[in-house]
Amino acid sequence: MREKGEEIRNRLPRLIMSLIMGIIFWMLSVFVPPTLNEVTIPGIGTQASFLVWVLMVLIMGIFLIRVLSDALILGDILTDVFVGKLGIKEERSPKRAAREVVYMIVIVLVVTAVSPIISTIEDYGVYFNAIITYVGLGFVIVFIYDIGRILYTIIENKAEAIADQLTKSQKDKKRD
Q1: Phi, psi dihedrals of residue 40, rounded to the nearest 5°
Q2: Strand locations in the chain, DSSP E?
Q3: pTM score
Q4: pLDDT tens across 77-133, in order?
Q5: Sign of CA dihedral 91, 94, 99, 100
Q6: CA distance 98 to 79
Q7: Do 42 and 91 meet the contact criterion of CB atoms below 8 Å apart?
Q8: Contact 66, 18 (CB under 8 A)
Q9: How many domains does the chain have?
Q10: Which of the 8 DSSP states describes residue 1?
């Protein structure tokens, strides 16, 4: 348990700081580029506002990847603790189910973030947007099915254990 406590003490502050930095760079990507609309970078012919926005989004993405990495590890630790409190001996399945919930959230966030950008592509943006939405939906449905299967297996095993325990206690009573 000491290792888990140490891991939480190391990862939680880093997760919070990375999240705060991601929010700061998101706010900068919203407010700074409009101030540079009139500036054009010589040689490239691109507005400085677009390049600053891309740079801010990339930096924000790096911090959000760190948040996701730390959150997955903390999620594994918290899943272990929660599963231990429930008395479930299987470690792999509940971990996978919790990880798939995180994957579903990430898929929804990515599709939501990419959708407006993709839809601006001339002539084909609407089609690409629909494809991305349906692919994301397909992944979410697969993850929901897998989580349901995992939960069904866990509940079935628990029910069998309880039934075995009840039948064993009934057999013991009949012998007396």
Answers
A1: -115, 135
A2: 40-41, 46-47
A3: 0.52
A4: 776 676 566 555 555 677 778 878 888 898 899 899 888 888 887 888 888 889 999
A5: positive
A6: 7
A7: no
A8: yes
A9: 2
A10: -
Q: Which residues are paired to 47 by β-bridges?
A: 40
| Amino acid code (one letter) for 9 | R
For 29, half-sphere exposure in the C-beta direction (CA atoms, 13 angstrom radius) is 17
Quick one: 100 and 147 in the same domain? yes
Instruction: Copy the structure tokens of residue 1.
Output: 């348990």
| Backbone conformation region of residue 75, classed left if phi is above 0, alpha if psi is from -120 to 50, else beta | alpha
Do 116 and 72 share a structural domain?
no
Domain limits at 13?
Answer: 1-87
Same domain flag for 154 and 106: yes
Q: What angle do CA 128, 130, 135 make, to 5 degrees?
A: 95
* Most distant pair of Cα atoms in the chain: their distance: 95
Task: Judge if 20 and 38 occupy the same domain.
Answer: yes
**Which residue is it, tokens 């993850």?**
143
